[in-house]
Specification:
Blueprint: H1 33-38, E1 39-42, H2 57-70, E2 78-79, E3 85-93, E4 99-108, H3 112-115, E5 119-128, E6 134-141, H4 146-156, E7 166-174, E8 177-182, H5 189-196, E9 204-209, H6 222-257
Parallel strand pairs: 1-8, 3-9
Antiparallel strand pairs: 2-3, 3-6, 4-5, 7-8, 7-9
């Protein structure tokens, strides 16, 4: 670990924890600074007018034909006999926190010395950061809900974190402004894709941490909650240190000017 690392771990868990630190905090955020400044969150309960459109069967069939004629890949939409349709959506994962995946290590049993080399499985979890800009294509139905898309993405990456920690957003660009809207759990992403057409500027999907609204603390384990308290304390101390340093520099410059 780096001398500047403030990672906290129970002494009995040290052998079961492996960290992959990619760099100092904040360094990875610099590239996103411009885009973050342009993004604007909108109300989850206020979809655009075109998203409220209800299509009959003939209109759905016509939209699918138009969609398939506009795309430059083989990710076509297909109409089913029951009136539903299937197709692909592309989801970009923009997660700033590490995710947890299961890991199993075989360790000697406490009885190994008496009854032979028996082993038992110890459940562990490994945390890591997903690469920035990770993109995944999903083949879904027109009735697949946003919550089911999140579940599918977590399964593909074998993430064992609670799905309620994540949210699916629609992203659109208009007048050099980026707009984000959190999708409700029951919204249907493929239906939105069909209504918007294939343009990524008109509509794209992003999965991020679910940070809007009240935090559901019941979704976290007791060790996680204790860790959050330590992290908040460290962040508070660091923020105070930066404020003191800033005011000390201002005071020094004023004294030099006198």
């Amino acid at each position: 670990l780096s001398p500047d690392c403030s990672f906290t771990c129970h002494y009995r868990c040290r052998a079961l924890v492996r960290l992959d630190c990619s760099g100092p905090p904040g360094a990875s955020d610099e590239d996103d600074g411009t885009e973050q400044a342009l993004e604007k969150d909108t109300n989850v309960d206020e979809p655009s007018e075109w998203e409220k459109a209800e299509l009959d069967q003939a209109q759905v069939e016509q939209r699918i034909k138009e969609y398939n004629n506009q795309i430059n890949s083989n990710l076509f939409m297909s109409l089913n006999k029951d009136g539903s349709y299937t197709g692909f959506i592309k989801v970009q994962l923009k997660l700033v926190r590490p995710v947890s995946v299961p890991a199993t290590k075989r360790v000697p049993s406490l009885q190994a010395g008496r009854s032979g080399p028996r082993t038992q499985g110890v459940k562990r979890r490994t945390s890591f950061y997903l690469p920035k800009g990770t993109v995944k294509h999903l083949h879904i139905f027109s009735y697949t809900r946003a919550s089911e898309v999140i579940d599918a993405l977590l399964r593909k990456f074998t993430v064992i974190d609670d799905p309620r920690k994540f949210a699916l957003f629609e992203r659109s660009e208009k007048d050099e402004q980026v707009y984000l809207r959190k999708l409700a759990d029951e919204e249907q992403p493929l239906r939105l894709r069909l209504l918007a057409g294939p343009s990524e500027k008109v509509l794209s999907f992003v999965m991020k941490e679910n940070e809007t609204g009240e935090v559901n603390w019941d979704a976290f384990t007791l060790p996680e909650l204790h860790n959050f308290l330590r992290i908040l304390q460290r962040e508070e101390e660091e923020h105070l240190r930066q404020l003191r340093h800033r005011y000390a520099r201002c005071r020094q410059k004023m004294q030099e000017a006198l």
